[in-house]
Q: What sequence folds into this?
């Protein structure tokens, strides 16, 4: 920050360009923290015990192996989805877009979700929008929206903290 004093006109001129740069860096740093927190919160929701119905699931496919079954408990409507393969859980991520934008969601084309994104080179969970929002015969099992609403109170604090850190470096 440059402060120039013009003694003739008694004006103080302040160059705010460095403050703007620090603010942008602080916001970007905060988005990194917020993105990680959203991903972690979504995964915690998915990992919680479920209360839906149980049914047998086959495993052990192969020529020389005998087909075996394990018990799987599905999620009830309104709960975050249960984990069967882990593909959905692994697909949750965030991506920085320029200085002032971050997108969070499943690594697929989930344009139905306002906080979703399409990311490249990932294992897709193309069923994520149907789980989040529901479909014809499927009631919603949200896992992204609760993460966003649960972190909302903290997000402004993260932004303020990271901007302050950058401004103290001036």
A:
């Amino acid at each position: 920050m440059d402060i120039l004093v013009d003694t003739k006109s008694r004006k103080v001129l302040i160059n705010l360009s460095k403050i703007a740069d620090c603010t942008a860096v602080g916001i970007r740093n905060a988005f990194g923290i917020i993105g990680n927190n959203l991903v972690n919160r979504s995964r915690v929701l998915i990992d919680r015990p479920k209360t839906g119905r149980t049914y047998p699931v086959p495993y052990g496919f192969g020529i020389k192996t005998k087909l075996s079954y394990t018990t799987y408990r599905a999620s009830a409507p309104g709960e975050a989805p249960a984990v069967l393969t882990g593909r959905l859980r692994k697909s949750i991520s965030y991506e920085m877009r320029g200085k002032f934008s971050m997108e969070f969601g499943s690594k697929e084309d989930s344009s139905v979700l306002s906080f979703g994104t399409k990311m490249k080179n990932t294992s897709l969970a193309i069923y994520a929008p149907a789980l989040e929002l529901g479909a014809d015969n499927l009631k919603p099992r949200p896992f992204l929206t609760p993460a966003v609403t649960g972190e909302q109170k903290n997000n402004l604090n993260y932004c303020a903290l990271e901007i302050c850190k950058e401004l103290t470096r001036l």
Observations:
- The chain is about 40% helix and 20% strand.
